[in-house]
Write a structure and sequence with these properties.
Elements: H1 4-13, E1 32-34, E2 38-46, H2 58-75, E3 79-89, H3 96-103, E4 110-117, E5 122-130, E6 145-148, H4 168-174, E7 180-184, H5 188-198, E8 202-206, H6 218-223, E9 229-234, E10 245-251, E11 255-259
Parallel strand pairs: 3-4, 8-11
Antiparallel strand pairs: 1-2, 2-5, 3-5, 6-9, 6-10, 7-9, 8-10
């Protein structure tokens, strides 16, 4: 089956282009950029695909859905304004109030949404944000270094009990430094390649440099999603900020190289719902 990026390309190919002046940056980034620096993003979580509602609390599910959306705003160097929630609720779902508490746990107000009956729990959120200088995926330059905001692979190693905090403060701090940025929702093996492709470059990632989350090995750090850390491209003359780890570089070319400690290429790919 076609992968997620292939499906996005197929959808984009048949959609009308946005009228000039209405959308500054559309499909292909972590969030759309509207005039005035407004940011708009959406994410959906579905029981059986993103979580197991029989073993996760409603509050955890709501918090995870909100974190996924807010991480997209963080990747643009922005701050959130509000969320909306479209919820598909199955018969007998026991804790709608807990779901709402989770959605609101990051302190971002809920401004509206929609409710529907559904065969499984579906939590589809959208977030409105703003950024003075939105950071895109497509503006990196050859020679930029790649750095991550925190440990990777913890979720793939079974860390779903831990809270995930979207890196909003880090994203705002990087907005004046990074040439490009992306949120690591699908694993650095996939998302670094996306950033590089958007900028017309090749990503080179040194696996031994990846900071490991609790219980994670290098493969989980490279391929595991749901960590919601940020990957930033930094110019060569900009010091890597405290708290970030330099893990690679961008070079001329296309695609991605994942290199082991001896400099040998390793064939790994990140998460894709459609190519599990």
């Amino acid at each position: 089956m076609a992968g997620e990026d292939d499906l996005i390309a197929a959808i984009t190919a048949v959609l009308p282009a946005a009228a000039p002046g209405l959308v500054d940056v559309g499909i292909g980034d972590d969030a759309a950029v509207l005039p005035g620096g407004l940011l708009l993003a959406a994410d959906m979580l579905v029981d059986g695909a993103h979580f197991d509602a029989s073993i996760r609390t409603a509050e955890w599910i709501g918090a995870r859905a909100a974190a996924a959306n807010l991480s997209d705003i963080a990747a643009m160097g922005g701050e959130p304004i509000c969320l909306t929630a479209s919820l598909g609720i199955p018969d007998g779902f026991p804790d709608v109030a807990g779901l709402a508490r989770g959605i609101g746990c990051h302190g971002v107000p809920l401004a509206g949404g929609d409710l529907s009956r559904a065969p499984v729990l579906v939590v589809s959120l959208a977030v409105l944000g703003r950024a003075e200088r939105p950071v895109l995926r497509s503006t990196a330059r050859a020679g930029d270094r790649l750095a991550v905001t925190g440990p990777l692979g913890g979720q793939a190693a079974g860390g779903y009990a831990a809270e995930v905090e979207p890196r909003l403060a880090e994203g705002r701090r990087l907005a004046g430094l990074a040439t490009a940025m992306i949120d690591l929702s699908d694993g650095i093996a996939t998302d670094a390649a996306r950033l590089a492709a958007a900028s017309g470059l090749r990503a080179r990632v040194y696996l031994e440099r990846l900071p490991l989350g609790p219980g994670a090995d290098i493969e989980q750090a490279a391929t595991g999603g749901e960590d919601f850390e940020l990957l930033a491209a930094l110019p060569p003359d900009v010091p890597v900020p405290a708290g970030l780890t330099e893990v690679g570089t961008l070079v001329q070319g296309e695609g991605i190289e994942l290199l082991d400690g001896a400099g040998r290429p390793v064939g790994l790919t990140g998460w894709d719902h459609f190519r599990r």
